[in-house]
Input
Amino acid sequence: AHSKAERAMQAQLGEMRKELGRLLERDEGERRLAEAEEAGTRKGRSFEERVHGALERIAAARGDCGHHVGDEPGIGGTKKGDTVIEIGASDGPAVGRIVFEAKDDQLSKNKAWSELNGAMAERQAEFAVLVVAGEENVPSGREQLAEYEGNKMIVAVDAELPDELGLDLAYRYARLRLMLKREGELSLDAGGVRDAVEEARSALKSAQAIRLALTN
Output
C-alpha cells in the first residue's frame, strides 16, 4: 500500500512539475513580450523626448515656455501634438501657441496634414511643425523648411541628435508668423517683424540648399 501510494504521489509530482514548467515558460514569454513592447514604446518616445528637449532650450532662450503634452489628451480627447510652445509665456500671458509633432517614421501627405491639423485643434495652436527623423521621412511630395497653407512646416532632424539649427529656424519662422498676425493687437515693430520673417525665410532656403549640397 505504501509503495502504491508513493508511486501515485510521484506521478502527481511529475504532473505538477510539468504544469509548473508550462507556467514558467508562459510567464517568461509574457515578460519578454512586455519588454519588447516597452522597448518599442521607449524607442518612439525617446525621439519625441529628444526633440522636446531641444525645443525647450530654444524656447527658454526667447522667453517662451515649452510643454511636453504627448501623453496628455487635448481638448478633443486625442493625444495629437507632442510639444506645445507658448510664446512669451515666461514674462506674462502667452500671445500665441505653436505645436510640434515628432515622428520617427514616414507619413503620407494626407496623414501628415491630418496629424498637423489635428494637433492644432487639440492643442489650440495656430501653427504646426512636423519634425521627422531624417530627410528620408519627409512626406512624399512635400519639402522640408517650406511653409504650407500659412500655418504648417516640416523639418528633418538627426534621429539621435536633433539638429537644433533646423529646429531653431523652423521655430523662429513659426514664431514670427504668429507675431506678424498679431501686429494689430500687439505693441511691436510690424515693419521689423516683416523684415525678420523675410530674413528667416531666406535663411531657411539657404539651409535647404546646404542640406541638398551635403547630401549630394
Remarks:
- The chain has a mean pLDDT of 85.
- The first helix runs from residue 2 to 60.
